[in-house]
Structures are given as structure tokens and as C-alpha cells.
Amino acid sequence: MARTKDQSVPEAWRAGKLPYSAGITLAVAKKMLEAAEAAAKKQGLAMVMAIVDAGGHLVAVHRMDNSMLASINIAMDKAFTAVYGKLPSQAWRNIIQEGHIPPLFIHEHWAPFPGGFPMVKEGQMWGGVGTSGATAYGDTSVARAALLAGGFSTGDADAILAELD
Fold this sequence. Notes:
Number of strands: 4
Largest sheet: 4 strands, antiparallel
Distance between the termini: 72 Å
Strand order of the largest sheet: 2-1-4-3
Number of helices: 6
Shape: globular
Radius of gyration: 18 Å
Order of helices and strands: HHEEHHEEHH
Oligomer: single chain
């Protein structure tokens, strides 16, 4: 029996030309990770950086040599938190501590620590970046370098860095 083309599947889908969104691409994520690594090296830090898309799904992760193993999941979780919460990850610590939402609201991958930022451009959420392995200042400054390299807003990171100075 000869195989025939399944007409119920659109041609664009079969050809792999039906993208999910116009969000973050692997090429942009790589550029962001390179900038983040350069910023970390400049500060003498060994870190992990993660980029997720607008759905919170991992696009790329980069672990520098000798970085803490725990930082792998923490960086991914900070990026996830920034996307799902639509705020820098550390903002959620204050929201929870001030009792604005019950702790049960938090997802198992929620990480309310400094270093996770939404990737916002042209008024749209494109994804999130998360960094782990340093202090609040180190994580934030490395995430800022990634945001800048991707052409995303650095306003939240700038404000946090100003508070930490």
C-alpha cells in the first residue's frame, strides 16, 4: 500500500514553518548569554544564565566553568518567575513578605530572588532572563548585560542596581 500525504496536516506545519510566536530566537539568546558571560568574567564571577520564551519555556542555558550546580535550576527558575509574574523575580519576595498574596500562590519553580527579569521590548513580553551564582548586585548586573545585548528594557535592572549601590 502506497503512503499518501496526510491532507489533514497543513503544509506549513509539515515543513516546520509554523512558528509559535515572533518571540525570542536562539540567535538572540546566544548573543545575550555571550554578553552575560563577558560581564560575569569582568567581575570575576562563575555563574549560570538562562533565557526562557514568553511561555516560560527554556530557550538556552549557559553554565560557566566552576559555577555552583544549584545555580542551574535557580537561574532557570528566576527566568520563569520573571515571565510568569511579569515582574523582576526579587519583587515577588516583597509581595510575599508583605502578605499581599498567600504563599500557596507560588508555583514550585517560583524563585523570588534577585537576578530574574522580564524581557520587554516594544511594550511586549518576549521572555525572561535569569542569572545565578553571585550576590544580588552580581546577578542583577549580569542579567542587565544580557538584557542590553538583546535590545530589551534595562529599566528594572537599573533601578535595582541603583538601590544596591
